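W.,

You were right to be curious about this one. When I first looked at the sequence I had no strong expectations either way, so I just let the prediction run and decided to look at it fresh. Below is the sequence, 348 residues in total, followed by the output.
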Amino acid sequence: MVRTGSASVTAGPTLAVVAREAGVSVPTASKVVNGREDVAPETRRRVTEALDRLGYVRRPRFDTVRTPRLVDLVVHSLDSSWSGAVLHGVEEAAHDAGLDVIVSAAGPSRTRSGHPQRGWLDKLSARGSAGVLFNLAELTESQYAWLDQHRIPYVMIDPVLEPPPGVVSVGAANWQGGVTATEHLLSLGHERIAVIAGPRHKLCSSARVAGYRSALASAGLRQRPEYLRYADFDEATGLLRMRELLDLPEPPTAVFVCSDSMALGAYEALAERGLKVPYDISVVGFDDLPEARWATPPLTTVRQPLAEMASTALRLLVRMMDGHRPEGTRTELSTRLVERASTAPPGG
C-alpha cells in the first residue's frame, strides 16, 4: 500500500472485474477502455457504466515515466472569472518555477450512472505529468486511491468537500470572512440580516454560514431560520432565494450573499420589486470577482485571494514533487472586506 497525500489505499478493480460486471469479454472491455470504434453502442454503454460504477481508471502505460516539468491543473470549469483568477495565479507561479501547465475542465458532468467523469485521469495517465492541482474538484474515493497508488503528488485548491486525512489543500479563511461580512452589516445598525448560502454540503459554504451565525451570536441576536437560504453559487439561484426573502412577512434589511455571482442575482430580484441597493436593502457578497466592481452600485464584498491561493498551491506542489512534505496539510489565506456602495444603514 502507498501513502502520498491521503489514507492508505489498495489497487482498484481489474479489467476482468469490469468485463464481468458488464457481461462482456475482457477483450471487448479493453476495446472500450482504449477508444476502439468496433464496439456496438449498447455494449459500449454497458462497459462505460461498469467502468464508472466500479471506479476503474486506465493505468499508465509507463508507470515509472514522468515528465518532470509538466503539471496538470484540473478546474471545475473555464467559463468564469473565478477560473480566470486561479489560472493567473498558477501561470505566474509556474513561470517562476520553470514548469509547463496543462489545463483540463472536469466540469460538473456525470455519467448515466451518476458518477463523475473520469476523462482527466485517462489524460493524466497518457501525459505522465509530475503532479496535479485540483480546483473545486469533487474526487471519488477511487480517484484519490488511483493518485496515491501511482505516487502522483497533488494539491487541492479550495476543496468542495473535506478531503481525506493527509491530503494537502489551500483555501481561504471562509469562517472569518462570514464573520467580517456580518459584523460590517451589524456595525451599520442592521439586525434583520439574512444569508444566501451555497450548497449545504460544500465546505466553504458551511464555514461562511458558521461565521455569520457566530457574528450574530456575539451581537446578542438570534439567527432567524427563515433568513437562511441555500442556493447553488450562481446568479439564477441567487435570484430565486432573494425573491423568497422578499416574500417574507418581515423581509430582511440586509443580506450577506455567499458569492458575488449569487449577489448579482439578488440585485436582479431587488430591481424586479423596484427596490434600490443600498437604500432599501444592503447587500454584501463574497469573492471580489471583477463583476463586483462593475455592478450598479459596486458591490461590497469579502475578497478571497484566488490568485494567491493558486500560486501557493503550485509552490506546495513543487516541493512535494521534489520529495518534501508540507508541515501541515491545510493552508488558509486571509480574507478581507472590500467596502463599496452596496451597504448603508437601514433606511438609506
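Here's what jumped out at me. The two ends are 63 Å apart (CA to CA). And, maybe more interesting for your project: The CA atoms of residues 235 and 264 lie 6 Å apart.

Coffee later to discuss?

I.
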